[in-house]
Specification:
313 residues; alpha/beta; Rossmann fold; Alpha-Beta Plaits; 2 domains; disordered N terminus
Length: 313
Amino acid sequence: MSAGPITRAAPPAVAAGGRTLEIDALTKRYGSTVALDGVSFDVRPGEIFGFVGSNGAGKSTTMRIALGVLAADSGEVRLGGRPVDLDVRRTIGYMPEERGLYPRMKVGDQLTYLAELHGVGRADARRAVSRWTGRLGVEARLGDTVDALSLGNQQRVQLAAALVHDPAVLVLDEPFSGLDPVAVDVMSEVLREKARAGVPVLFSSHQLDLVQRLCDRVGIIVAGRMRAVGTVGEVRRSGGTRLEVHAPAAAPGWASHLPGVEVVGHEGGRTLLSLDDGADDQRVLAAALATGPVHGFTVTTPSLTDLYREVVA
């Protein structure tokens, strides 16, 4: 199946002063390879936007263009209606997928230096470093070099580097990769905290169960094109009605002849069906009963993971 663009919901209430990050019709080619083909979406003040797609779909390319690391062939990135130039980029907190910390530099010195590069004074930078390393649980490692840290702690320090200059927007590429469950919870709460303060938060992730729990809206990109954009609920509902039927005696193809019904999966007497609009669920029930006893007949909504698999396929 294919999911088209979805009507967007109203933005959440946020603190005053937030600005919308707009990704407007970005295209990017490398020779004959189309990396981005008219990619458009926005991230509103106070919302967490999950950007999902397979490796090579265009997520990192989009984020690098948003940060000015790459130039688009066409299209524009704006923050609060203003094109992203050097001054605007200084207000963005960025966490790249390929972690960019200096391995032999001490954590505290490095974070202070990075805050100062964004225009933060030395005293304020040190206070910010103390705050965020404490919040992220790495305050005891300020005197250690980055290469002496575990991968999980390096990840926490990398997030601190994106936060120490009090960014107006957060752009995070795979921030949860390699984290243990406790660290995932800590990082999730930090992102919620920034969103509550009115900051637009954009992050990519392959952990779709986490995206489903954490995000206000989500965008699915496939081969450089946006295939679905909307709230998590809207995107899930775009997959149509699902029925899970537990009919132990039914053969795998028992529902394949029914109009408007697609067999999504069959295992152990349980069949998952996708119903088009107008398909008759009572006819499905009658067909199931014709095979023998029916122990379960449940209407479900596809998870984001299920829908993603179908959209990508």
